[in-house]
Every structure is written in C-alpha cells, then in structure tokens.
Amino acid sequence: MLDKIAGSDRPLFLGVERSIAGRAWRARLRLRDEAQAAAIAQIHGHGDALSRVLAGRGVTQETAAAFLDPTLRALMPDPLLLQDMEAAVERLARAVEAGEQIAVFGDYDVDGATSSALFVEFLEAAGCPRPFLHIPDRILEGYGPNAEAIGELRARGASLLVTLDCGTTSHAALASARASGLDVIVIDHHQAPEVLPDAIVVNPNRADDLSGLGHLCAAGVAFLALAALARELRRRGHWTDARPQPDLLAGLDLVALATVADVARLQGLNRAFVVKGLAVMRGRARIGLSALLDAARVDGPPRAYHLGFVLGPRINAGGRIGDAALGARLLTLRDPVEAARIASELDRLNVERQALEKATLEEAEAEADRQLMRSNRLSCLVVAGEGWHPGIVGIVASRLKDKFKIPAFVIAKTGKVCSGSGRGLSGVDLGRTVRMAVEEGLLQKGGGHAMAAGVTLASERIDAFRAFMNDALEEDVERARDADALLVDGALTARGASVEFIRALEQAGPFGAGNPEPVFVLPDQRIVDAAVVGSAHVRARIQSGDGTRLDAIAFRAVGTPVGDALLQGRGRMLHVAARLGANVFRGAERVETRIVDLARPDHETW
C-alpha cells in the first residue's frame, strides 16, 4: 500500500503520484512515526486509527492524554505576559471603579462581534454604565476606527475607548481620539507595524511582544484581558455578595466561535478554548446563539463545523451586506423574542449573501482565467470588478484561492478608492506582504494576518499592486506548490465508515487550522450513481467490493476535475479520498462522507 519515494519521508499512498485533482497522495504518518502510533495505542488503549491520527499530528505517548483533554488550567498563561496588558488592566480597573462611560469599538466580523460582546457583558456585570457599542458599517465607514464615529462616542460622554479586533494600524483615528480627551486601549491580533498608534496596544503580534500567543484571535486576547481585569478587581475588593464576579467561563462559547470562524490555529490554548467553548454552547444558555442555532436549523449538539460554516457565516452576513451591529447585538441579548427576530434576519441576509457571492464568483473566475491564460505561473491572483459588493469580496477570494491553489485578492471597484480582501495559502504570510505594499506606497491602507488581509487602494494602483504581490510572493508560493500533497491518514472500507468510528476520531478534534481534519481513502470504489445537487455540489453513491454502499458528497465540485470524474464515471472504479463526519437528521445520527479527491487505480485506464 505504501511506496517509498526517494528523497521524501512521506511515502506515496496507494502509489498515487497524481490524482484526478492533480495532487500526489502521501501518508500523513511518516515512517519514523509508526512506532509512535503503536506506543500511543499500547499505552493509552486507543484504537489503531485514532493512534495513527494523533501520531500524524505530532502527538506522542507522553502528550497524548493532555492533547485529548486540553484544559484551561494547564494551558492558560498569565495574561500579563502580553506586552502592555498590565497598563490596559490598570486603566480598565480605574474606569470600572469610577463608573466611567466606556465605548467599545469592534470589527464587523465574527471575531469583532464576539470580542465586543464579551467586553460589553463583563463591564456591565462589573457595574459600569452599559458600554456604548459601535460596529462600523463596512461600506460607509470601512475597517477599523474612524474619527467621525469616535467623535460621536466622545460627544455622548465616553471617556475610555476600547477597540477590539482592530486599531493596531489606526494611527490617525486614534490620534483624533486622544486629541478629544479619550483614553484608548487596543485589543487586537493583526499584524502590527513597527510604530504603534498613540494608545495602550495589547496585541501578541506586536514586534516587541514575547508572549508567544500570536496564534490567538482577538476574542482569545479579549478573554485574557478580562481574566486579568477580574483578578485585578478582586485584588481591589471590587467583587461583593451584591456584585459577584461574572463567570468568565460562560463566555467561552464566544471565544470558541471566534477562534474557529477566524481560522486561528487549533493548537495549545486555542484547542482548550474550542473544546470547553463547545461544551458551554451545548448548554444553550446564551439566548442569542441558541436563537441562531434554531434559525440555522441545527439539529443536535453544535460541533466545530457549525461554528465555521453555520453560525460564523450568519453573523458575518450582517457585517457584509446588512446592519453590521446585528451580530454583536444578538450575542448580548436577554430577550428571546428579539433574539429570534435578529437571528431570522441574519439567516435571511446569509441567503442573500450566497446569491451575491454566486454572481460575483462567476465574474471573478472568468477574470482569473483570463489572467492565467496570459501567465500560467502567477503567484497571486488580483481581480477587480465594477459593481461587486465590498462585503463579499473576502468569500470570493477564498473560493478563488481554493480553486486555483494560489493566494487571491478580490477588489470591489467603487470609484477612485477601492477596497478588497485577500486569502492566502498555508506557508504564505499574506498579512506581512500587504504591510510591505503599504510601506511601498501602493496601498492607502492594508493589514491582516497570515491567511487573510484587507486592502484599500486607488483604482489606478490595482495593476501595480498585482505586479508587486506576484513578485513578492513568488518564492513562498513556489514552495507551497511543491508541498501541495494530499496527506492521507489511512485506508478505510465503506463498511468501516460508521458513526462509532467517527466518534472515536472526534476525540482528536476539534479539527481546523493547525489540526487538520483526517482524510481517509476508500480504495477501489465503484461509482454507482452521481448527480448535481444544489447549485454546485455533486452527490454520489459508491460501492465497495463486498457490496457495501455509501452516500457521499463533493461540495462545490461542479465544473472541477473531481466533479466531472464523478458525473462521468458511473460504473467505473476509483480510489475515493474523503473526510468523514457525523450529522444529526431528524434526531438520528448518521455518517457524512465528503469527497475531497479521487484517483484511478493502477489497473484502470480512462
């Protein structure tokens, strides 16, 4: 089954050098790790499949127990390790004790909404007047703090401004805040310039921050800040029987949601946040999230999948094409009727967003094809179009990146000044490169993190920006292309793809960035039937040699080599690479098989 390739410590899987999608299949488990998998199975009593999955992710027999049960007690650092956290906590504590009016300014995505909700809830429970909450309109205000909104918050009586998931690069806006008499605290995680704005900046991605917590999303940083604030207020005797300390752990549902939706690496503390946060969410104590789960028709306990692909897109829909503050407001509601109304509105906006995305994606793919015809070795796609909604360009960029396997930026032309969003590949630092483009004067604004970035630029600079990104990313993308193999965790029979098997695998979850979902190959499967479902998916029924049949789906596969092979392959034999999960339908748990690639068996010719 495993054929060793010279010069590689990851052997080919089933000898597949080039799949139908054009990728090599390689065993995730290196040959030197086989003994580690056996040791995990022997010492901890786990099954072979789970032990191999763990060993393939660098888990050892010594670390297996802690990996499978990540705890905050073991993984939570002292928040004061973060640069300027002590100053931020001291200023917040003074504001709480004095009952100052605090303004919270959050980003318009899930991370910003959850961070803002965490702060608003805690400060109100601590006895502050209800904080002013401002989420900027993506179209009218753009990303990050702006002088006009800050001026309004100051005029309403705010004396302290806290920015969440934004602010690290907002020099001018925060200078205006300071000039108006506002103190400013920035809680963020985006790439930081060398010169910081005039504020207390808590950001683990500052150049001078040595905490090692740069993998946290903003909600994770906000949680640490509130933990430190709770401790400081306890030291000052603020908490009493009449005003008990808020239960910080109750906010882990929001931290988990942000961590997954913002594609933060699910390692270390982030894994603990998501594992414990999902447990909190399953209790459905947060009225807003419970209403959104109902509106999204989630049947059964929420999983990491629901955070990234069900709840996240609906909260984002408000910021993309509707009222940007809807998500943050929903997450702090105590009125179930109002929560149901907002959840329904976000669900409706998400449907509208999907329609806009489909139309824009068709145009963007056509432009990408034209660019690739002119040069088939592009390192970065930069496409732009008139009439594209600025709120969906990030999603379209993600689709282009997935299809063409290179970083992609999608820019909405809205006059002389345009805005766009980019999505990157693993191993390619998009945020750092965008900051370089800002320093080169190609962008008016730009920033982000390794996998995603936003840009604002003059329309006449789009071509120059495209050329810069292709030159700057060429070497990194070339290395990413060379490493673009599908890593396979093992082989599986159709009969073995059971709910019990999936439950065993889920112990190694949650899966996502930094902890990839396992991929299994079902060898020699006959394609019994295949058909298009929805607008772009292909549903197939496959059958193994013993007659066992399995229903599977290839998402967004129409028009791709994998989708074409399924639709044209009735009766043929194929190796099927898939991710397996469980979902609940009408109260019954069942296996969901998601096809990610196909390969022709050695003995089969087409």
| N/C terminus separation | 22 Å
Widest sheet, order of strands = 5-4-6-7-8
Mind telling me which CATH architecture of the largest domain this is? Alpha-Beta Complex
Quote the beta fraction: 15-25%
Overall number of domains: 3
Q: For this structure, what is the CATH class of the largest domain?
A: Alpha Beta
- Name the poorly predicted regions: 1-7
Overall morphology: globular
Supply the number of helical segments.
20
| Largest sheet report | 5 strands, parallel
Helical proportion? 40-55%
Explained architecture:
There is one protein chain. With about 600 residues, the chain is of the alpha/beta class. The protein folds into three domains: about 10-25 and about 490-600, Nucleic acid-binding proteins (OB fold (Dihydrolipoamide Acetyltransferase, E2P), Beta Barrel); about 75-345, inorganic pyrophosphatase (n-terminal core) (Alpha-Beta Complex), CATH 3.90.1640.30; about 375-480, Diaminopimelate Epimerase, Chain A, domain 1 (Roll), CATH 3.10.310.30. The protein is about 40% helix and about 20% strand. The strands form five sheets. The chain has a five-stranded parallel sheet with strand order 5-4-6-7-8, with helices on both faces. Helix 7 runs parallel beside helix 8 (about 170-180) and helix 13 (about 305-320) packs across helix 15 (about 335-375). Residues about 1-5 have low confidence and may be disordered.
Quick overview of this protein structure:
It contains 20 helices and 20 strands. It is of the alpha/beta class.
